[in-house]
Amino acid sequence: MKDIIADTATEIRDMRIRGAGRIARAGASALAEYAREYGGNDLERFRADMAKASDILLASRPTAVSLWNGVHSATRDVDSAGSFEEARESVVRNGAAFVESSEKAVETIAKIGAKRIKDGDVLMTHCNSSAAIGVITEAVRQGKDVKVYATESRPWRQGILTIRDLSAAGVDVTLIIDSAVRTVMSKVDRVFVGADTITSSGSLINKIGTSQVALAASEARAEFNVCSETYKFSPKTLFGDSVTIEERDIGEIIRPGEMPEGVKVFNPVFDTTPAKYIDNIITELGIMSPGSVYGVMVRQLGDRISGYM
Question: What are the φ/ψ torsions at residue 272 (nearest 5 degrees)?
């Protein structure tokens, strides 16, 4: 297996590549590069090696439907190709097309979402989402005066990346510890978060703590917005599959020698926010309610629907 696949999988697993969109683009790009440099010309061997490469990438972040969709977008024509060259070129072409469409989707979401923000709004964001950051920075680019509270987002503290991005864009941003969300929410008008996965019922799978942000927003009557490319919609959930919530090593939150004997540590990466706490899902297709997700999934899948069963 070429280093590009193993290296990309390691970078995703070790959180050097973070964010659902970035992960998806990295997976599609790695497969395209792997196909471009493939050292053979046997079609069946190429199919088998692409399947192995895909499995390695997918195992690096099992919860991320974005990665799954990126990988499958890149490899979708391999099985139907009539020759090795046709199969190889399809991966190169489809991988590049996925990256381009993903980047354009973030730009479109920014323009649509910025319309939800009013001059003088106080906003909150959680973790580090390029789509949510794009919405906020676009509003500021349009001349709107906003203030932003960004959560630290333990244990990996992705909030540090967020405040750097927002500060560089000239945004008035304040970093808060995760447990201060409810205290600060009384000042907030709107919340913008990203998405790791959105299920067919409109529920959100995102960075741990997102559901608590949504609960606090509901209590304070602050608008809760999810910024998500539609490739983060999980077609597998149409057919009864549940979303796997990844657990990570306890070393991320406790130092060696601190653990008393018999004590356990629970370190989930994501949590589930029920659809009833979500006001809007902002996508490249427009703003929709959680209840609209099912119909969008079905329309987008079309005749490809059997491939997800």
Answer: -110, 125
What are the catalytic residues?
Answer: 127, 196
- Binding-site sequence positions for substrate: 18-21, 61, 206-207, 232
Domain boundaries, the chain: 3-107, 115-308
Q: In sequence order, what are the residues at sequence separation of 6 or more whose Cβ sits closer than 8 angstroms to the Cβ of residue 44? A: none
Q: In the CATH scheme, what is the code of domain 3-107?
A: 1.20.120.420
Residue 145, class by beta-carbon neighbours within 10 Å (0-12 exposed, 13-18 middle, 19+ buried)?
A: exposed
Whether the model clears a pTM of 0.85, i.e. scores above it, the answer is: yes
Residues of each annotated binding site: 18-21, 61, 206-207, 232
Residue range 108-131, pLDDT digits in tens:
999 999 999 999 999 999 999 999
| pLDDT of residue 189 exceeding 90 | yes
Task: Please list the residues that pair with 150 across neighbouring strands.
Answer: 125, 175
The amino acid sitting at 164 is R
Query: Does domain 115-308 bear CATH number 3.20.20.70?
Result: no
pLDDT of residue 161: 96
Comparing C-alpha atoms, which of 229, 263, 286, 269 is closest to residue 104?
Answer: 229
